[in-house]
Design a protein that fits this description.
Blueprint: H1 2-22, H2 30-58, H3 68-108, E1 110-111, E2 118-119
Antiparallel strand pairs: 1-2
Bound molecules: zinc ion.
Zinc ion binds near residues 112 and 114.
């Protein structure tokens, strides 16, 4: 009973490896970065706000500097969002410029079912 179960789980792992081997090069997710960045920038904004508030308390900064906290909140959030947008643009550029040639290679490739060697007919092995 046990050997059968083991062989079943072993072939399951091999299937997963083969599936991974045969999977196309993945697309990047620009919208995912934008949405994660939006959430993250609010969190970073509040963390910066909190730290600035604590420092302001400890250093006994006069109340007239209170509006500065809003500047700090939006600056920290803005920096985070800028980072996310730049990353999303990079992902978008990858999807539109670098991914198509990789997909073309992937589409003409063949995988040997026995040894999992990958053949590219346009680049014969030396
Ligand atoms: Zn082979």
């Amino acid at each position: 009973m046990t050997p059968m179960m083991m062989s079943a789980s072993t072939s399951g792992v091999q299937q997963t490896q083969l599936a991974a081997l045969c999977a196309p090069p993945p697309r990047q997710q620009p919208m995912g970065v934008i949405m994660a960045g939006a959430v993250l920038s609010v969190i970073v904004g509040f963390v910066a706000l909190f730290i600035a508030g604590v420092i302001g308390n400890v250093m006994k900064v006069p109340d007239k500097f209170f509006p500065l906290l809003f500047v700090i909140f939006f600056a920290a959030g803005g920096v985070t969002m800028t980072w996310a947008v730049r990353r999303a643009l990079k992902f978008h550029r990858y999807n539109s410029e670098e991914l198509p040639p990789l997909l073309a290679v992937w589409q003409r490739k063949w995988v040997c079912h026995k040894c999992h060697h990958q053949f590219d007919p346009e680049k014969p092995a030396a």
